[in-house]
Amino acid sequence: METYGLNFKKSLGQNFLTDVNILKKIVNAAELDENDDVIEIGPGIGALTEQIAKKAHSVLALELDDRLIPVLAETLEPYDNIQVIKQDVLKADLKQLLSKYFDGQHRVKVVANLPYYITSPIIIHLLETGIPFDSLVVMMQKEVAERLSAQPGTKAYGSLTVRVQYQMHVKVAFTVSKTVFVPQPKVDSAIVVLSPKEVLTLPKDEQLFFKVVKGCFQHRRKTIWNNLQSFLGKQVDKEKLHQLLLGLDVSPKTRAEKLSIDKFIQLTNKIIDSKIIEK
């Protein structure tokens, strides 16, 4: 950064990883080989990009900060299997980009050191694309990693947990000390591996399922009874709602963190079947 006369942009969550051993561990966690095409989000100065390129068939790196594009062109010049484009991943048509830059003959993986401030939106965006990613191997704030991997009944278990674990297996590969970043963040990080899972039980309305989950966790300290009344509206038939919960063997005094993903799916389906609200 000194060489190019650049400063770190706090607004873009720029914390660059400088420990090559950690970079190699991330690549190992992604189990990359010549059969993989990789999307990297936020390559920064290209340290992780270089390690990915050494293993993968090709790399498409999306960088939002146009100041870094010429830096990347120079630092990654020795590699002919890397494409760097200026792109905001949250606004990108990833299917179109994959069609343009990848040949469709290889597995597609995401490997990235995600900006802390938009980690969750990026992960949700990737899941919503419908692209059959082989895996997502992403660095994030340790606290967020704990939320993604949480089990029902724990403090970290919430709507984000359910949203991600509905589609993906979640494994925390390893943690990373804040001391290996420049500039140094205030918290430690973790590498999380997300891999697709077969969803055996599907909700009758997936979008309503996501809304129900979010509604049930709206106020964590409130019971599922109170949160559902708020979500469904003041005109909801309370007796019908009470019977609906009892039919699921869920006490109205239960908090949302106690419910499994399957139970949320059952709850959504019951809400639809009971016609307690208009979809």
UniProtKB/TrEMBL annotation:
GO cellular component: cytosol
Chief location of this protein within or outside the cell: cytoplasm
Pfam families: RrnaAD
Keyword Cytoplasm found: yes
EC number: 2.1.1.182
Role played: Specifically dimethylates two adjacent adenosines (A1518 and A1519) in the loop of a conserved hairpin near the 3'-end of 16S rRNA in the 30S particle. May play a critical role in biogenesis of 30S subunits.
Protein name as catalogued: Ribosomal RNA small subunit methyltransferase A
Gene that this polypeptide is encoded by: rsmA
